[in-house]
Specification:
By secondary structure, the chain is mostly helical. The protein folds into 2 domains: 91 residues, no CATH class; 156 residues, no CATH class. It has 12 helices and 2 strands; from the N terminus they run H-H-H-H-H-H-H-H-E-E-H-H-H-H. It has a two-stranded antiparallel sheet with strand order 1-2. 29% of the residues are buried.
């Protein structure tokens, strides 16, 4: 009974994904047909057998997509259609191979792909594309490889957006809400002292969230499987920032460093014993956020306050 209920819940998602898959398959068919319909010179013969094979395979993929009962099957069929669409490179008119290849490279470059990858594509396939008049078979093979690269990079860009968008939203919400919660904790700390520690932790988490949001990997540096590990690295960086913020706050409270005859310990005591003023709450909120903004801030703080231990030992 539970299984039937689960299947009913998944049905709308399955149908939505089916519509997307059928649209993608239809797009690949249209691309292949449009390439075959391009004008060509009399001695540039269209590979009709390949065209018929590709269209027949796309028809089979479309029929399977209409009958698929699982989302994973639809995803596999969409990838199969994409592979068939890449064979349109072998249907490209000889006179247009070079221009088509350059257009593909320019399109990939416009997605913000690393410059090194673009240079590699030009070095590998540029000369083959330029020799389309003398060696059309090699040029079409190079164009097919570029189509494969284009589709692979397109999938990667989509994965990048799907990964980064939820994290950006979540980090923004944390950066806005955590300081407000920390302020409330400081305000009521006089009534319940553990709220002081909670406020410091929340402030450190807010600073860490801002730091992670400011240093989210750009498309050109988030390769080599980093997308899969990004969630784990976000949580570890926030955790390290929170602990560093708490340690830094404890160090500031212990050291007799004062500003306008007021130490950080005085501000903390005012929250723990009486209702602190807005200025003191702002100070208590700002310093942990600053320390949590980067896990490296605590190291920098220690070096400034205590100096380089190796130099002290040598001295």
């Amino acid at each position: 009974m539970f299984k039937r209920h689960q299947e009913r819940n998944e049905e709308p998602e399955l149908e939505e994904r089916r519509v997307e898959a059928l649209s993608a398959i239809g797009g690949e068919r249209a691309s292949v047909e449009a390439m075959a319909q391009r004008p060509r010179s009399g001695d540039d013969v269209l590979d009709v057998a390949l065209l018929q094979t590709v269209l027949k395979r796309l028809d089979q993929i479309e029929a399977s997509a209409k009958q698929a009962t699982r989302i994973s099957d639809l995803d596999d069929l969409t990838e199969d259609a994409e592979v068939q669409g890449q064979f349109s490179a072998y249907l490209c008119p000889r006179d247009e191979i070079d221009g088509e290849g350059e257009l593909v490279i320019d399109t990939i470059e416009g997605w913000g792909i690393p410059k090194a990858a673009i240079k590699r594509l030009r070095d590998l396939f540029g000369k083959k594309l330029e020799k389309a008049d003398t060696n059309p078979a090699a040029a079409r093979s190079a164009l097919h490889s570029l189509f494969v690269e284009r589709d692979a990079w397109s999938d990667y860009v989509d994965d990048y957006e799907d990964t980064m968008r939820p994290w950006a939203r979540g980090l923004f919400c944390a950066a806005v809400s955590l300081p407000l919660l920390a302020t409330l904790a400081f305000h009521f700390a006089a009534q319940f002292s553990p709220l002081l520690i909670l406020g410091l932790l929340l402030a450190g988490a807010a600073g860490s969230s801002v730091s992670v949001m400011a240093k989210m990997p750009a498309l050109d540096v988030s390769l080599a499987g980093e997308l899969d590990a990004y969630g784990r690295r976000v949580l570890s960086r926030i955790g390290i920032g929170v602990i560093a913020s708490l340690i830094g706050s404890a160090s500031l409270a212990w050291l007799p460093v004062s500003v306008q005859n007021q130490t950080f310990a005085d501000a903390l005591n005012s929250c723990a014993t009486t209702s602190a003023t807005s200025i003191r709450i702002l100070v208590i909120l700002g310093l942990p956020m600053l320390l949590g903004f980067s896990e490296r801030s605590l190291t920098s703080f220690e070096q400034r306050v205590f100096g380089n231990q190796s130099k002290l030992q040598k001295g």
